[in-house]
Description:
Elements: H1 2-11, E1 21-27, E2 30-35, H2 43-52, H3 59-78, E3 91-93, E4 99-101, H4 106-110, H5 112-119, H6 121-124, H7 129-132, H8 139-155, H9 165-174, H10 189-198, H11 210-221
Antiparallel strand pairs: 1-2, 3-4
Helix pairs in contact: 3-8, 3-11, 10-11
Amino acid sequence: xxxxxxxxxxxxxxxxxxxxxxxxxxxxxxxxxxxxxxxxxxxxxxxxxxxxxxxxxxxxxxxxxxxxxxxxxxxxxxxxxxxxxxxxxxxxxxxxxxxxxxxxxxxxxxxxxxxxxxxxxxxxxxxxxxxxxxxxxxxxxxxxxxxxxxxxxxxxxxxxxxxxxxxxxxxxxxxxxxxxxxxxxxxxxxxxxxxxxxxxxxxxxxxxxxxxxxxxxxxxxxxxxxxxx
Length: 229
């Protein structure tokens, strides 16, 4: 019943940057959702391709991906829905290369430790400190995860990774994120400021909305300081 409720709420999200959910059912005891087909692959695949070549994505490409994701998250938050499991694997692309967000509600169904263990240490790399501590999820938790995605797209790797899921979650709780660096040295200094603000341990110190982060990064990518608190 919890799965059905999450599916119904996901289906009720109306935004061009959400995957469209058509319905859900149970087959032989296995609940499933029917969603639109998106042929453009995942962000995880794009990042893996860049990592294989020792680079992150270009700054204009990062900006193009962040903007629709931020729009989707803010729209969901306005309806009281938190994603809680944002990662490169649930960012898909349309045939035209538009980023689309999927998998709302998984974190609420599984809980933080089960969620991390179900996917290995990889998903723990995108958990907020409060989520790692088992505290309630909030919009600020999603905004932190979006900051992790931005950091990884820029640098080619997330700030915290390696070891066990519990070990990675502890890094989120206790360790400052490494200063962003980028092969080729073409990362504007202001982008460092944006990324580190997005990854603040204190939820109140982060960007208030996902759109604030996306706009600040877009300005920084052009060498401009963003006047967004």
